[in-house]
Design brief:
Pep_tRNA_hydro_II_dom_sf; DUF2000; single chain; DUF2000 domain-containing protein; alpha+beta; five-stranded mixed β-sheet; 26% strand; Bit1
C-alpha cells in the first residue's frame, strides 16, 4: 500500500515558523493514527538503542495562501481523500477535547484553515494539490 499512496501536508504561508512546524506535526499524527500501515518498523542504532518507528513513505510539505489552501481542502474532500484539518482556533486551545469542539462549531466551508494533511492514492493527492508549491 505504501508505494501506491501519498502523504502530503499543506500549511498556510503566512504562519510563523514554529506554527508551521506545530501544525505539520499535529496533522501527520492523524495520518499515522488512522493508517497504521503507513508507519514502518522500529529503528535501532549499532548500540542496540531502540527508537520510535516513523512513516515508511515520504511526507511532502507544501505551502499555500489561505485561498489556495481552501481550494486544496475542497478538492481533497471531493476526491474522498482522508483529510486532517488544523484551524486558527486550535492555537488557542490546550487539549484534544477543546480542539474537536472548535472544529465541530464551524461549517466545512467556513473553517479558518491553517493546514491540512491528505492521505490517499498518489494520483488523487497530486490532483488535489496541483499547482501548490513545496514548502521552502
Amino acid at each position: 500500500m505504501q508505494g501506491k499512496t501519498k502523504i502530503a501536508v499543506v500549511v498556510r504561508d503566512d504562519l510563523v515558523g514554529w506554527q508551521q512546524l506545530n501544525v505539520t506535526a499535529f496533522l501527520v499524527s492523524g495520518v499515522a493514527a488512522r493508517f497504521p500501515e503507513t508507519v514502518g518498523e522500529t529503528y535501532e542504532d549499532a548500540s542496540g538503542q531502540e527508537y520510535l518507528p516513523m512513516f515508511g513513505q515520504p511526507v511532502l510539505v507544501y505551502e499555500a495562501d489561505a485561498d489556495a489552501l481552501r481550494v486544496a481542502h475542497r478538492k481533497a474532500l471531493d476526491r474522498d481523500l482522508a483529510v486532517a484539518v488544523y484551524t486558527e482556533e486550535l492555537f488557542a486551545t490546550g487539549n484534544d477535547v477543546d480542539n474537536r469542539a472548535a472544529v465541530r462549531a464551524v461549517e466545512t466551508e467556513k473553517l479558518a484553515l491553517v493546514g491540512i494533511a491528505v492521505h490517499g492514492p498518489r494520483n488523487a493527492v497530486d490532483k488535489a494539490l496541483k499547482g501548490l508549491s513545496l514548502h521552502s
